[in-house]
Amino acid sequence: MSFLEKLLEGVEVEWKPLAHKESGVAELTRGRVMSKNYLRDNEGEYPVYSSQTANNGEIGSISSYDFDGEYVSWTTDGANAGTVFYRTGKFSITNVCGLIKIKNLKELDYKFLFYWLSIEAKKYVYSGMGNPKLMSNQMAKVPIPIPSLKIQKEIVRILDTFTELTAELTAELTAELTARKKQYAYYREQLLTFDEKEIEWRTLGEVGEVRMCKRILKKQTSSIGDIPFYKIGTFGKEPDSFISNELFNEYKSKYNYPKIGEVLISASGTIGRTVIFDGVDAYFQDSNIVWIENNEDQVLNKYLYYYYQIAKWQTAEGGTIKRLYNSDLKKTKIQIPSLEEQERIVNILDKFDTLTTSISEGLPKEIELRKKQYEYYREMLLTFPKPE
User: Fold this and answer.
1) Rounded Cα gap, residues 139 and 328, in angstroms
2) Is residue 154 part of a domain?
C-alpha cells in the first residue's frame, strides 16, 4: 500500500456547502469597481487583483487596501470565470472577483480549500449568452469535503511540494532555453557578417520572383475541412480555417504554389516570420504570406531562411498595420557568399536550430508531463467518499 493510500485509508469526511447561511463553512463577498483612472490616481504599494490570470491576476497597486489576511478569491466573469487564487496580506479585488473567508479555521484550512476549489469551481460556471459567469449564489452551493485538519494540512504539504518542484523545473528549462537562444542569435550574427571582399550584394528580386497563392475568400473557408488554410494570424501556428480538396487542387494546378524547401515569409503582422515549406498540403493567404521562387543555382533556400532572420525589412504603413509589399521585398539586399560557404553556414546554424528547437519542444512537453503528474496526485489526494 502506498503512502497516499495509507494517508487516506478509512478517512472520515464531513461534507458541507461552501456558503450556506447556517451550515456553510465560509462567507462570500465581492470586490468593487476600479477604473484605470482610479488605479492611476491612487497608485501605491498594495496589489489589486482582477479577472485576468496573468501576473497572478494583479492589474495594478494602490495606496489603500480592502482586505488583510488569508483568503481564497475567484474570478466571477469572463473567460477565466471559476479560476481560484490563494491570497494573503493586504490587497483589494475588483468587481469581477469574489472573496471567500472561512468561518472556522479549526475546521477548514485555506490552502486545502484553494486546492479543492481549483478542481470543483469551474464545474459550476454558467456559460449562457456567451459570457461565462460564476456568481456568489452558485459558488455558495459547491460542496466542500472536510477531513480532519491534520489530513488537510498533510495534503496541502504534498501539493505545495509538487507545485514548487514544477515551478523550479520550469524555471530551469526556461533559463536553459533563453541561454541557447542567445547563443544561437550570437553565432547567427557572426556567421552572416562578411568581409565585403568575400561576398556580393544582391536584391531578392535578382534571386527570384516574388510569388503568392491565389486569393481565398472568407466564404470559401470553414472551421473544419480537408486542407489547412494559413492566414497571417495562424502562420507558423495551428490553422483555424480550412478549404476543400476540390478548391485546393484547382488553385494549386492553375496558380502559384511553393516548392518543397522554399521559404514562406510573413509580409504583414509579424513582418519577416519565416517557415520552410515542407510540402504538406496547405494553402496560404495571398499577399500576406509570400515566397521567393528560387532554383538554388546561386542561393540556397536554407541560407535565405537564416538570412531572413537578420534582414532589415523595409516596410510601409498599410492601413492599421505595417506591410512588406512585393516591391519592397524585391529591393531587399542580401549578402551572398559562395555556395560552399553557404553550405558551411547552414550546417552550423542547423545544429544550433535543432538544439534550440529540441529544448523549445521539450519544455512544454516536460511542463505538460509535470502538470499531469501534479493533477494525478491532486485528484488522488482530493477524492473522498461522498454521502449517499
Assistant:
1) 57
2) no
